[in-house]
Amino acid sequence: MENPGGGGMGKRAFILGGTGQIGRSVGLRLLKEGWAVTYASRRGNLPDNARSFDANAVSLDRDQHGALARAIGDGADAVIDTVAFDGKHADQLLGIEKTVGQFVVISSSSVYRDHLGRTLDEARENGFPDLPEYMTEDQSTVEPGPETYSTRKIALERRLLDQATRPVTILRPAAIHGTHSTHPREWWFVKRMLDGREAIPLCFNGKSRFHTTAVSNIAEVTARALERPETRILNVADPSALPVLEIGALIAQAMEWKGRLIPIDMGDPRFGSPVGWTPWSVPEPFTLSTEAARRIGYTASIGYSQSIKEICEWLTQAADKDWRQQFPVLAQYGFPLFDYDAEDKFFHT
């Protein structure tokens, strides 16, 4: 398969996890640029935002032996893997590389560690990592292994970077946001507002800055990377790393909520009540440099303030269903996200 460069006209893209939050956005972007897109997922359905295009969908259980090779057939100019998780998934991609022009694979910025080896994965047990602001791709990472989400992601990265003979772009996003998510951090605010909470506490005085990444910006970096195939690692993040207080204010505006956001001077939630702890709450900034992505032509297509209204509308429509089933990653947090009794007790003491 010839390595693609330039525009997408006549090129074929195969997206693993095509119906998920990232796959939907990447697929739509490539369709608009003239790519022929095949969406691969367990159900094999076509995303609703692709139905007006001449796109294809295939059912795929990638863990069945030979299933990926059969699904991709005679190949693709680009394979975009939005759901690769570990070294086993890397081996699956290496097994089809003779029929692939290049790969774009989603990893995570959670792989970064500080000089003591601390990461986001174990921050509640070991303390928050001491990381520089606007980390570059050269920041130290965890070692590969089966222990945590991040060590598995690094195993995926290393295997591909060390062994692939085709160009591989590894993308490291931060706190991903957009519709059709199984981990919509915004639900922490939206549910409180829908439930009629009049005051919402924010720990660390609402100053926490955990860089956000719009799925449309992941799609933008993907499109630019496909124009210039090479092996590299790229951070992906929004133009600004907003503090939690500003994120909450934007959500309140989108929801037309008239209550109060109350910054509280509270220490590390590891040592006490999770009152005011949001999914973006960190004691120190966690921010990414996107200079490397900008060097290949990346310009953020959207910022958080532009994306939040659509997210809130989508979440509001989902509010009549069990959020634990709809948002399973949120439901797996190790403490209650909506402990209103604890909040009421805090406000009345």
TrEMBL record:
<protein>
    <submittedName>
        <fullName>Nucleoside-diphosphate-sugar epimerase</fullName>
    </submittedName>
</protein>
<dbReference type="InterPro" id="IPR050177">
    <property type="entry name" value="Lipid_A_modif_metabolic_enz"/>
</dbReference>
<feature type="domain" description="NAD-dependent epimerase/dehydratase">
    <location>
        <begin position="14"/>
        <end position="237"/>
    </location>
</feature>
<dbReference type="Pfam" id="PF01370">
    <property type="entry name" value="Epimerase"/>
</dbReference>
<dbReference type="InterPro" id="IPR036291">
    <property type="entry name" value="NAD(P)-bd_dom_sf"/>
</dbReference>
<dbReference type="InterPro" id="IPR001509">
    <property type="entry name" value="Epimerase_deHydtase"/>
</dbReference>
